[in-house]
Amino acid sequence: MIPILTPTEMAAVDSAAPEPFEVLVHRAGFAVASAALRLLGGSYGRRVVVVAGPGNNGQDGRVAAQMLRRSGVRVTVLEQSPDLKSLPSCDLVIDAGYGTGFHGTHHCFSSDSPVLAVDICSGLNGLTGEISGSVAPAVETVSFAALKPGLLFGDGPEVSGRVHVADIGLDVSAASMHLVTDSDLRGWVPKRELRAHKWSHAVWLIAGSPGMSGAAELAATAALRGGAGYLRLSTPGGTSPTMPIEAVGYPLNAESWASEVVMQAERFQVVAVGPGLGRSEGTRVQVRELVAELNRPVVLDGDALWALGLQAGQLLKQRRSPTIITPHDGEFEQLMGHRPGADRIAAARELAAATGAVVLLKGQATVVTQTGSGCLVVRSGDSRLATAGTGDVLTGLIASHLALGADPLRAAASAAQLHGRASMLGPERGLLASDIAGLLAEAWNQCEAEQPR
């Protein structure tokens, strides 16, 4: 995991550092100069313009300028100013104008040269990733000690380029937020024990409705590909499923099924509810009854979240077993009465506090959090995931990781990471949700192969 610190948290870490300020600036400047030389491909004959602001970022930029000069680079240092419109011709611009503490409207300089950002692009909100005014998009950003939320959310990923976290000796061990990486998966999702049998990792999926079988089939396939040993698929009022053929169909009465699930769920490690379930009043009643009475871990998505609505907090906080909910922005609004704000980490934490559940808030960067358990951010996928059915795949995958024995918070985060990783194995155009389900095993094998032995 890679630590993430808000601007306020980063300021506190800076203040608590035992090293003198000058030492930290020297280390930061060295990291910036090293990145610059790498981007330049050498120093001989190279020209660099450093735009330096009045704060710590400006100091880092000035130190980097001194080091680059000693390496033979021709460096011009310009003071950050609203009047700075255009820059001299150069091979690289170092944006050391403003950092994560900037407030106001930024007026960006104009340059056709590649830009290296110091900690964060000037004018980019360090907490939300919103642009205030204008920014100079960077080809690379050197972030000190930890990632900042603004690099991961909003416009941040589009304007920050490749992000490199430079260790300058600050203690970030108390960080409560982390970016998930592929290397985390192996340690988070247990392997099947040698004595395992199909019921050791069993999932009951309640999904689909008459004429809406696709969501159920996607979630079921993902659960099986993710490691579920036994998958029972029930569509209330529907016929037995035809796909995937490995799923075991089990009929449920359309109007009264919650009590039967409660009575028979003991053999299952997890019950997943919601994909394509429909939005009838009967569905609302049955989902609420199931949530209230079932003493098994549950994953709730799609229409199950609609069924809970604004009563989600009251219903879920009474549960004794783990609950994972996976809303997108519209479903978040159904549960909370308002859409998430620009600070998506705060939004996810708000929902977690209101419901007592593990919350997976879907988005460009997915946030997974639980009150008292920190926050995990996932950015393994891209816009390929913006297609119908990918959320159903994620639901089944989360259920499988939970059934394999993963901690609920990590089950959700590891599933999101693998989900995104699988999508990146598919084509940039024309990727279907069913393709992602089919690529899950390959993605997992790749992650395992990349782990140090």
UniProtKB/TrEMBL annotation:
Could you cite one Gene Ontology molecular function of this protein?
NAD(P)HX epimerase activity
The EC number(s) this enzyme carries: 4.2.1.136, 5.1.99.6
List, alphabetically, the Gene3D superfamilies matched. 3.40.1190.20, YjeF N-terminal domain (3.40.50.10260)
Annotated function: Bifunctional enzyme that catalyzes the epimerization of the S- and R-forms of NAD(P)HX and the dehydration of the S-form of NAD(P)HX at the expense of ADP, which is converted to AMP. This allows the repair of both epimers of NAD(P)HX, a damaged form of NAD(P)H that is a result of enzymatic or heat-dependent hydration.
**Protein's name in the database:** Nicotinamide nucleotide repair protein
Give residue ranges for domain YjeF C-terminal: 181-447
Gene Ontology terms describing biological process: metabolite repair
The answer, when asked if Nucleotidyltransferase is one of the entry's keywords, is no
Q: Which family does it belong to?
A: In the C-terminal section; belongs to the NnrD/CARKD family.
Q: Tell me the keywords, alphabetical order.
A: ATP-binding, Isomerase, Lyase, Metal-binding, Multifunctional enzyme, NAD, NADP, Nucleotide-binding, Potassium
Gene source species: freshwater metagenome
Task: Tell me the ranges covered by the YjeF N-terminal domain, including all copies.
Answer: 5-176
- What is the catalytic activity of this protein? (6R)-NADPHX = (6S)-NADPHX; (6S)-NADPHX + ADP = AMP + phosphate + NADPH + H(+); (6R)-NADHX = (6S)-NADHX; (6S)-NADHX + ADP = AMP + phosphate + NADH + H(+)
InterPro entries, sorted: Carbohydrate_kinase_pred_CS (IPR017953), CARKD (IPR000631), Nnr (IPR030677), Ribokinase-like (IPR029056), YjeF_N_dom (IPR004443), YjeF_N_dom_sf (IPR036652)
Can the keyword NAD be found in this entry's annotation?
Answer: yes
Q: Which Pfam families does the protein's record reference? A: Carb_kinase, YjeF_N
Cofactor(s) listed: K(+)
